[in-house]
Amino acid sequence: MSILITNIKSLLQVRENCPSFISGNDMKTLPTIENAYLLIENDTIVNYGPMEDASSIEAETTIDATGKFVLPTWCDSHTHIVYAGNRELEFVDRINGLTYEEIANRGGGILNSAKTLQNTSEEELYNQSIARVKTVMKLGTGALEIKSGYGLTPEAELKMLRVIKRIKKEFPVKVRATFLGAHALPQHYKNNKQGYLDEIINVMLPLIEKEQLADYIDIFCEKGYFDLDDTKQIIEAGKKHHMASKIHVNQFNAFGGVALAVENNALSVDHLEEMNDEDIEVLKGSNTMPVALPSCSYFLSIPYTPARKMIDAGLPLALATDYNPGSTPSGNMNFVVSTACIKMKMTPEEAINAATINGAYAMGIDKQYGSITRGKKANVIITKQIPSYYYLPYSFGENNIETVIINGQIIA
Ligand SMILES: N=CN[C@@H](CCC(=O)O)C(=O)O
Ligand SMILES: [Zn+2]
C-alpha cells in the first residue's frame, strides 16, 4: 500500500537526521518544506521533498493537500486513558468549593476510580477504554503512553495492564505501557504503606515482568501519597525488572523528587507545576525529559509548568495530556498545544516540537516517531485548509484536522 500526499502547503517538522530531543533555543525552530510532497509505503515514510521532484512518483492512493499542512502525529507521552467510569460528581464538588486534596481525603479521587475499576470486568474496561483511544486517534494522536494505577491490587493492576497490552496489539497507534501501582495507598493498606510497597515490589512486579506487561515504572511522588524514600524504592525495583522510570512529581509540592529522578536516570519527570531553581538546575544536561501537562493545570486551576523559564534555561520540554478521570478528562493534544501557547507562552514552534519529537523521547520511541524523517513510521496529520500553522494553536477548540494517518493507515 502506498500513499502519495501532493501539493502540501507546508510540510512541518522535517528532519533528515533527527536528534533524540530538542532543547532550549533550538525549540524555536520548526524545519519545513514549502509546496511539498510526502510518500508513504506500507507503514513507513519513504520520501519527501519539493513538489517539482514528485512528477514521476506513482502511488496507489494520492491525496491532494492544496492549502493544507502536514505534520507528524502527536506523541502523547503521559496518559491514564484506561479507566472505568467517570468522576463528574467530584467535578461538581470542586465547583462548589472542595479542593482536589479534600476530595481525595474523603476517599474520592484515585481511590474512587480504583473501586469502580475493581468492580469492572476486563472486557468492559477494554470497551470503555477503546472508545477513548478511537477518539484521540481522530484528534491526531499517533502514539500513546498508558499507565496502570487505578487497580491498586495485584489482580486489578494486572487487569489494567492486560487491557493496555490488548490495545497495543489491536490498534495502529503506538502504545507504551507504564506500571503505576504506587499511584495511591489503597484502603486496606491505610496504616501500612511499606506493606503496599512490598506488595508492589515483591508480588506485582515479578508477575508484570513475566507477562511482559509494562515498559516503564511510575510513582506519584507527592505529599500525602509517596515520599522520596518510597520513590527511590520503586525506581530501584523497576531497574531490577528492566523498567526505566517516568515519575509523577512536583504537581503540588517541590521537595527534591526531580533531583532524585534525575540521579536515577529517569526517562521523564511529569507534571512540574511547582518548580524551584534547584529543580531546573539538576535537569540541565541530563537525559531526563521534563513533561508539562497543561490540561491538568487548566482543569484543576493549579499553576502551569513554568515552560518559559525552563526553555530559556536551555532545557527541553515535552507536552502531554494526562488524560484521566480526575484531573484531566480530555485526551485532546490540539488543546494541549493551544494551551501551552496561550497560558505558558510557548511559541507555536516550541509547542509543536514539545508535542512531537520531545513527546516521542519521553516515551522512548524517538527513533521511529515524532518527526518527518525517511524510515520513520508513517504517522501524519493532514490539516484542513488553514492560513498558517500558527492557526493551529490560535484557533483553540476548533478541529483543524482533516485526515490522520497512523502506521500507514488512514484513520479519519
Ligand atoms: N496526579 C496523579 N495522578 C493523576 C490524577 C489522578 C486522578 O485524580 O485520578 C494525574 O496525573 O493528574
Ligand atoms: Zn498522570
From TrEMBL:
Name the residues that bind Zn(2+).
H78, H80, H248, D322
**Could you confirm whether the keyword Zinc appears in this record?**
yes
> Per its UniProt record, what SUPFAM superfamilies does this chain match?
Composite domain of metallo-dependent hydrolases, Metallo-dependent hydrolases
**Pfam families associated with the record:** Amidohydro_1 (PF01979)
**Main location class:** cytoplasm
GO BP of this protein: L-histidine catabolic process to glutamate and formamide; L-histidine catabolic process to glutamate and formate
Binding-site positions, Fe(3+): H78, H80, H248, D322
The family this protein is said to belong to: Belongs to the metallo-dependent hydrolases superfamily. HutI family.
Tell me what this protein is called. Answer: Imidazolonepropionase
Its lineage opens with: Bacteria, Pseudomonadati, Bacteroidota, Flavobacteriia, Flavobacteriales
